Amino acid sequence: MLHTKILYSYNDIMVEPCVLSEINSRKECNPYIDKENKMLPIFTAPMSTVVDTLNCQYFEDNGIYSILPRNIDLVTRINYAKSGKWAAFSLKEFKELCFNEYDSIHETPWKVLIDVANGHMKQLYEAVKYAKKLHGKDKLIVMIGNIANPETYFECYKYDIDYVRCGIGGGSGCITSSNTSIHYPMASLINEAYELKLNTYHNNNYLKKEWDEMPKIIADGGIRNYSDVIKALSLGADYVMIGGLFASCIESAGETYRLYEDGSTYSWGRLKYNTDWNSFLKLNEKNVIMKEFYGMASKEGQCSINGKKTKTSEGIHKDFRVSGTVPQWVDNMASYLCSAMSYCNVKDVMDFNPQHVICNVISNNTQNAINK
Predict the structure, then answer these.
(1) Are 254 and 50 in contact (CB under 8 A)?
(2) Chain Cα centroid distance, residue 160
C-alpha cells in the first residue's frame, strides 16, 4: 500500500510567535523540566563515544540526563539502574535482570533502557509487561525504542511503557534508513505521536492514566543544532536525545586527537577529568582538536559491546572538530529555549507543546533564505 500523505522533517517547519506575548524578558521563562535540579528535557544518547562512567555525572551536573551505554560492563550498568539513574541493556540482559522474583522488592525505581535496533518487536513489549507485573509499575521505569510509526505510541500506552524513543535512521551515526529504507520524517513522527497521546488521554484512556503517567515521547536522532531541539519540543516531544552534538564537545567519551596540517595526528586518548578544559581548548583556535564518533550499530560500536562485529553495519564512523564544552552548550541551549518560549508567551517548558505553540510548514525557498 502506498500512502500519499506528505511527511515533514525538522527542515520543513518553523515555530510561529504568538500575536502578543505578556512575557517581557526571557528570564521569566523556565527551561528546566526539573527546576530544582536545573535539568533540561534532554538525554545523552547511550553511545560509547558520548558518555561513559567518567563523564555521566558531569552531564547530570550540567543539567543533561545521561544514559550509560551497553559497552559499559554489566555489573556497573545494573548498579547504575538500581540507583535510580538510566542505563542501557539488551533485551536478553533486561530479561535476566528483571525476570527474577527474588529481586522484585526495592525502594528506588530502576531506570532501564532496552536498547535494541527494532523497537517494533512484539516480544519487547511483552517482556516489559511481564517485568512490570512482577515488580510493580512504580518500581520499574522502562524506556524502549526506536520506533518510526506514530501509531506504535498506543502500543506503548497499552503495555505500560514509560518512555519511547521516536526516530529511526535520523542520527548522524546511523545509516539504517539509507540502506533499509525504513524511516518516518521526525517532525511528522513527533507531532503525530503527540496527537495520538492527546487523543488517547482524553478519548481512549481505558487504563485511567494521569497525564504525567502517559508514555513520554523522546525525539531521538537528527538533532543538528539548538533550533532542532526547540522544534522537537514544540511539536510534542517531552524530551530530546542527542548524540553527535555531545560527541563534538571536548568532554565527550570519544578519543581526542590533534590534527596537523600535513594530515598526521597525535592522540590524547580518553581525556582525564582533571583537565582544564578552557586552557586545553585554546589549542583549538585553528580547529585542530578532533573527537571520534561512531554509531552503536557501526562496526566500531558492535566491537565496543561484543568485542567483535556481529552483524551487517548500520552505522558509520566519523570524526568531529571540537565545538566547545558541555557547559557552554547547555548555557546556550537554555538561553535559546527561553527566548523561543518568550516569543510564544510560554513561561514553562512543560507547556511548550502543540497545545500552546503553533508550527508552520515552510517552503524550500523560505528555508534557504533563513540566515542568508
Answers:
(1) yes
(2) 20
